[in-house]
Amino acid sequence: MARNKDAIPPCCGIIIITLALAVLLVLAFAFVVPVRVTVDEATLGRLALTAPRSGTAPASLAYDLSLAVALRNRNWAMAVWRTAPLVVELRFRGRTFARAGLAGAGRDRIRAEREHVYRATLAAESAPVALGRGGVTEFARESAAGVFELVLAVAGEVSYQAHLHRRSIRVTCPLKLSLSTATAPAPFSRVKCTHAG
User: Fold this and answer.
1) Most buried residue, 13, 18, 88, 192, by most Cβ within 10 Å?
2) What's the predicted TM-score (pTM) here?
3) CA-closest candidate to residue 78, choices 37, 117, 36, 31
């Protein structure tokens, strides 16, 4: 039986496959794909401007908002750990009027290509916010239209498997929310957040 001179010997094939797998593993752990942050649910039960008690006091907002924020690990081989508190700020026209913690100082592990969802409810009867005359006018316009344009800022920190340095999460998520009731929930579509700054 004649041997094909162009055929690769079996031992060379095994070596080539082993080298290819080694390169693939190095690439999988060498490059980090950043965590993606999305707002999966947001329900606005109340958002109202309360008049200031004196002419010099800032306006106040009464609000009730429930939300679900997801952190998605888009790496296909590496796990991610949340290493610092995960906090959110709710803003109207660049002015923060609410803050909340989605997660404390513990470490949450997010496996490769998985996500972890954090839920919070933000509510207050009278939260001071310096809107200025233009902000009050814009609030009245959005209230009359029935759709509020808010920004949710999310901040935290993660570390990636096989990497020594921690990486901060600083993203903003533009929200357009209508008031919801128990009998008539307002529709909401997932919002992708973008890196701040």
Assistant:
1) 88
2) 0.81
3) 31
